Amino acid sequence: MGGCRVESAVLEDGDVITRPQPWEIYSQEDLPANVDWRNMNGKNYLSWSKNQHIPQYCGSCWAQGSTSAIADRFNILTDLKTNAPVGLNAQAIVNCQAGGSCNGGNPAMVYRYAHTHGLVHSSCEQYVAQNLMKDTCEDIDICRDCAPPADHENPTLDDCKAVDAQKYYIADHYKLKGSDKMKAELFANGPISCGIHVSDNFVAYTGGIYEEYIRFPRINHEISVVGYGHDEESGKDYWIGRNSWGTYWGEWGFFRMIMNGDGLNIESDCVAGVPTFDKPNATQFFQ
After folding, report:
1. What is the total count of domains within the chain?
2. What is the CATH number of the domain that holds 126?
3. Is residue 237 part of a domain?
4. Percent helix, percent strand, percent coil in the chain, to nearest 5
5. pLDDT at position 158
6. Which letter, b or e, does each residue of 214-251 get, where b requires 16 or more Cβ atoms within 10 Å of its Cβ?
7. CB-based contacts of 255: which residues, under 8 Å, 6+ apart?
8. Do 3 and 156 form a contact (C-beta atoms < 8 A)?
9. What are phi and psi of 193, to 5 degrees?
10. Which end of the chain is more exposed for a tag (fewer CB within 10 A), N or C?
């Protein structure tokens, strides 16, 4: 696998779909020209931005883009009625190898893990950008609290204990592709996670509507798409994406990508899920 994300985010047993899809409900004529979950009727529903490469390089984009999109959807679900915006823990996902590791992974498996086990809040584990140094993931690797160490120079997990935490589940989750389905999904339910082909030019992006012709684009990175818009001056439609490379990259950690053009394959492999605080009791699988 090249990069930090599999080329196709598929699950062997298929998606979980128990309700009509947004693109079956809304026609393109029903959709607004602009959707931006950073400012929907004056509210910013997004969780905070991340940097997957601090304190060291870790190819956890598959966990970062997916947990960002899912956290944003919980903020939409609660209409920001929580004491602070929800953020979800990518390190716990890496610890439990719920789709991969710092060597890359499959974002669709994060949605499946959220469906079967539930995700935990960002405050449960410090992001350390490394794989768990053991074969099994235990409760203490998901959510912990630590007491002052007996030996301040050599603290250990003996000073820590696993703690119960609020679980954030995903009910339905499914793949989608194409601008029509993406726009309907974004309008109806909120941010989605998508794969892109990262090029050297994209790494150096500093702003504007990005487009680049790649003869044979191959997905190798996961990001979150938080909206779409139209630029009156250029006449171009674009996606609003959020990366996990820190707020000093791009447009404060975000980027705009050309829609229906040379957009690094951003419209070809996306995943979305329906947030719930209740653990799903049943699943319905579709190949």
Report:
1. 1
2. 3.90.70.10
3. yes
4. 25, 25, 50
5. 87
6. eeebebbbbbbbbbbbeeeeeebbbbbbbbbbeeebbb
7. 205, 210, 240, 241, 242, 243
8. no
9. -110, 135
10. C
Domain residue limits at 75: 33-274
**Residues carrying an active site annotation:** 61, 221, 243
The H-or-E segment that residue 96 falls in is none
219-271 pLDDT, tens per residue? 999 999 999 999 999 999 999 999 999 999 999 999 999 999 999 999 999 99
Beta-bridge mates of residue 105: 5, 100
The pLDDT score that the predictor gives to residue 287 is 40
Q: What are phi and psi of 194, to 5 degrees?
A: -140, 155
The answer to whether position 131 is within a domain reads yes
Q: Is residue 94 situated within a structural domain?
A: yes
H/E segment holding residue 115:
helix 107-116
Q: What is the pTM of this model?
A: 0.95
Q: Is residue 285 part of a domain?
A: no
> Which two structure tokens, joined as six digits, stand for 268?
């070809």
